[in-house]
Amino acid sequence: MTTDLSPRTAVFGRLRIDYDPRVLRPRAWTAAQSVWAAELLHDAPPGPVLELCAGAGQIGLLAIALAGCGRDLVLVDRDDAACGFARVNAERARPAGAVDVRFSPLETALAPHERFALVIADPPWVPTASIGRFPEDPATAIDGGPDGLQVAWSCIDVIARHLLPGGSAVVQLGTPAQLDRVAQRLARPARGAGDPAAALRVVAQRSYGDRGVLALLRHA
C-alpha cells in the first residue's frame, strides 16, 4: 500500500467524501446500499440509524441525505483514521440529525439499552488468504477472516441485540455464496435460544455482479 497519506476526495452520490490510503476508498457501487437504506427509512419505526464498520461514513451519511430525514446517526469503526474522516465528512454533509462517531470494537460500541430503526453493516468480506489480491486496500479494512464472514457475524450479533421491532438491517457481503451461508445459518432451527441472532432472517437480497451483494435482515 502506498505511504503517501495525502487526503483524497471521492464523489459518492450527492456527497464529497474525504479519505486517505489508511481508509478503504469509497466504492461507487455501494451507494446502492445507501439508496436501499433510504427507501427503508420511509417506513421504519421512529429511532436513530446505526452504521457498523462505517469507514469514512459515506454509506450512512448518504442514506440519511437521500431519506431527507432528521434521524440521528451513529457511525462505528475500529480504525481511528477512518473515524477521523467520518467526523470530517459528517461536518461537510451537515445532516439535520446529530452524528455520533465512535472509535470502538463492535462488541463494546453500544450501550445495552440502545436501539435503532435501521442498521447498515459494511463488514470486510475478503477471505484472509485472498487479501493480497488487493494491495491498494488497507488489509484491516478488507480482511473478513478465513471464510470472509468473521466480522459479518459480529455485525449480525450486534444487529440482533440493537434492532428495534419493525426495523431493518442492510448488510453488505462479497458473494452470493456468502449470502447463502448467512441465510441458511440464520434459518437453522437448531440455533440456540441464547443466540441473539436466532430471531433474524434474510428476507430479501440484491446482487451487483462481481462487486458484492446486499442482504436485508429483519426479525423473524
UniProtKB/TrEMBL annotation:
<dbReference type="InterPro" id="IPR029063">
    <property type="entry name" value="SAM-dependent_MTases_sf"/>
</dbReference>
<dbReference type="InterPro" id="IPR050320">
    <property type="entry name" value="N5-glutamine_MTase"/>
</dbReference>
<dbReference type="GO" id="GO:0003676">
    <property type="term" value="F:nucleic acid binding"/>
</dbReference>
<dbReference type="GO" id="GO:0032259">
    <property type="term" value="P:methylation"/>
</dbReference>
<protein>
    <submittedName>
        <fullName>Class I SAM-dependent methyltransferase</fullName>
    </submittedName>
</protein>
<dbReference type="InterPro" id="IPR002052">
    <property type="entry name" value="DNA_methylase_N6_adenine_CS"/>
</dbReference>
<keyword id="KW-0489">Methyltransferase</keyword>
<dbReference type="GO" id="GO:0008168">
    <property type="term" value="F:methyltransferase activity"/>
</dbReference>
<keyword id="KW-0808">Transferase</keyword>
